[in-house]
Amino acid sequence: MDFWRDTLGSPTKIVAPMVDASELAWRLLSRKYGAQLCYTPMIHSGLFVRDFKYRAEALQSCEEDNPLIAQFCGNEPETMLEAARLAQDRCLAIDINLGCPQAIAKRGHYGAFLQDEWPLLYRIVHLLSQNLKVPVTCKVRRFESKEKTIEYAKLLESAGCKMLTVHGRTREQKGPLTGLADWSYVKAVREAVNIPVISNGNIQTIQDLERCLTETGAVGVMTAEGNLYNPAIFLGQNPPCWEPALEYLSLTEKYPCPNSYIRGHLFKLFHHVLSLPENNYLRIQLGSANTLTQFKKSAHVIQDLYEDYHNGHKTWSNCTEPNTENLVLPPWLCQPYIRDSPEEHLKKVMEKQNEEKTDVSKRLYEDSEGNPISRKKMKKLRRVMRRPEKPENSSDIPKARHICRLCANPLGLKCLYQLCKKCCRDKCWVETLDCIGHKIFTRTRRMLRGSTKGLSKKEFRKLAIKLNQKDKKML
């Protein structure tokens, strides 16, 4: 508990690590609205070690961004140690991501897809805890049984983990099947280990946070979506959405980040306003914005539309749910996003499928033999007809070919060197090579330097391919 109390300052209100969402500008906004501890987005340890530019962007910070924990993912103990050593002087702890359930984590074999490989996890945590100047923490998801979840937590504690964040959902609970997190698992882990435990899941309001602390006994509560839709969640406030949006945009001027991050944040802050049918044009406008000026314009348009309602100069009539007297928050206020339950989602999917089966007005598709097929199958057949040389089923390609030889990214299936595009570009630059599959022609450019002036991009590409084919024949 000394680490949580003395080093971190006993934080109870914590912003989760979020890919493309918990960048420096958003962390500073969250701290202004009551967050006591923030994490960096998940950092890929292999890329962090090899790529200086990625390293600078992934660990961007400043004096006000404290306390901060840097989170890494990976499956190679030595690489993770090297990455953590590069980051340890700029944060108070290194967190190991063992909870990401997304497809990219499955392809790269990290996050929650390591939770069954206990010897490897013990080695990673133990190696880092023994060789870093800062403590090592872990973020995990629960198993189906409490017994296995407790055993898992004890393993990480014995390996040297100094603080554990437990997400009350399983690896399979994601997307439309997310459902509710089970806090009883967090409580069971808290009672079984001797290190601080943070609870994650089901935090939509300040009342949820207080209830979670009481029910689980956790030292703190971490939230992701609750913070994204309402950055003032830790203050128990619901500000008009344009206020945090404009504050965030001001921070991005000082601490730049990709436009995709900004657009994602604004879509969540404005979610309830943009969900109204009459505001569909605003959704299109924000989706096409790609400069700070355009982003600010969208925020100001929403402010102009609803500020008079917020200040009481106009009366907003839609403040109750249909056919009820339940008061609801007006759409311009920051508020939680409530998903359908998995049962409701599956019911809607079944209803939609039944409607499609009974809708005779829908276009019917047939294969070459006249048999009725689905639209999806027809599209697949058309793709095969257009590219007969491509394997119909990607599973026919050996699985090892799907991963770049130098990093965990997917490789280009036409790459001559079995690399992803970035690694292939680096190899071609250093070794003066061409890769027709990735359309990288470093060797050709250097050979014909100055003599290709006036050629269009398409003409140069044809010339480069022709030269490569000629060299291949000579060999």
UniProtKB/TrEMBL annotation:
Gene3D superfamilies: Aldolase class I
UniProt xrefs under PROSITE patterns: UPF0034 (PS01136)
Cofactor(s) needed: FMN
InterPro entries named in the record: Aldolase_TIM, DUS-like_FMN-bd, tRNA_hU_synthase_CS
E.C. code: 1.3.1.88
Domain DUS-like FMN-binding: 15-236
Domain of life (superkingdom): Eukaryota
Keywords: Flavoprotein, FMN, NAD, NADP, Oxidoreductase, tRNA processing
Name the record gives this protein: tRNA-dihydrouridine(16/17) synthase [NAD(P)(+)]
